[in-house]
Known about the structure:
The protein has 341 residues and is mainly alpha-helical. Helix content is 68%, strand content 0%. Residues 120-126 have low confidence and may be disordered.
Amino acid sequence: MRSVPTFCPDRALHIFASLFHCDPVSLSLAVLIVPACLQAVQPGQVWRAAVLCLAALAAVLALSPAVAAVAIGVIAALDREACPAVWSVPALLLGVLFPAQTCVVLALLPVLFWSVLVRLRDGAPGGAFPAVMAILAVSLVWHAPGSVPAELVAGLGAGVIGLVVWSVLGAFRPGDLGLFRPVLLMVLVMAAQAEGLAVCSRIALEAALLDLSLLVLTAALGVRFPVLAVLRLPFPPLPGLVVLWLGIHAALGMAAGVEGWSVLGVAVSLLLGLLSLSDILVVGRVLRAWQGAVPGISVLLIGAASLLLPALVFGMASPLLHFMGRERVWPVWRTGGGDGA
Length: 341
C-alpha cells in the first residue's frame, strides 16, 4: 500500500529557517521594507516598486551572501544615480567572498548611500528610496556579528566627517547624513550585546526602530504630505528628539559601563548630535521645495505622530524589545531610557 505524503509544518519551518533569517530583528526590518517601497510607486511603473520590494526582502532575509549581493545589485540598478561600477562591483564581490567582515560592511555602505549623498545638477539631493537603503544598511550591520563595533564606529565617523568637510570645501549642503544614524545605533546594539549590556542594547534598538519608522513614514506619505519631514527634527515634542535622547543615553551607558568605550561612547554621542543637526538642513530643504500653505490635515498628522508614534512603535515592537532586554517594555512608560550617565 502506497503511503500518502503529508505536509509537516515543522519540516517547512526548518526549511524556511535554513534559507532565511528568522530572528525577530530581521523579521522586523522585513516588515518595514513593505511600506518603505511605496515611495517607488509611480503611475505606470508599479513593477518598479514590486521589484524593489522583492529584492529588498531578499537582501534582508536571505542567509546566502550571494543572494543578498545580487539583491543589492538589483536595487542599485533601479536608481538613476547609483554608485559607480568601479566601486560597487568589487564591493559586492567582497560581500560574497568575505561576508560579515568589518571592511566589507564599510565598503558596501557607499553602494547603498551613494545616490542619497551625491548632488544632482539641479541642486536637489539624490536618492530614489532612502528609507529602503537605510533599512538595508541596518540589516548589513545586524547580519555581521563578526565585525568589530569600534572599527565600524571609526569608519562611520570618518565617512560623516569627510562628507561634511567635502560639502564645506565645495560650498554646498551635504546630502541626508541622518540616514547614517540608524546604522550607528545598530552598531551600538551589536557592541552592547557583545559586552553583555542588555539594557543598553535594548535602548539603542528602541532608537533605531523609531528612527527607521520615521524614515518609512516620510517615505510612504511624504509625496502627499511633505511637511511630515519635520518629525525627524530633534526638538520637543517631536519623535526625532526621542531618537536622539535614547541614542545618547545608550552611547553614554556604553561609555560608563565598558572599558575602552569611555572616549568612543562620548564620540558616538557627539556624532549622533551632528547627524541630528544635519536633519535641520534636510527638513529645511524639503519645506522650501514645498512652497505652499500647510494643510490642516498635515498639522493633525504631525500632532498625532508626535504624541502616538513612539508609543505605537515600542508597543508593536514590545516582543522584540523583550527579546533583546529580557524586561517588560509595555506599557510604554516602562520603556528604559538609560541610566543618565
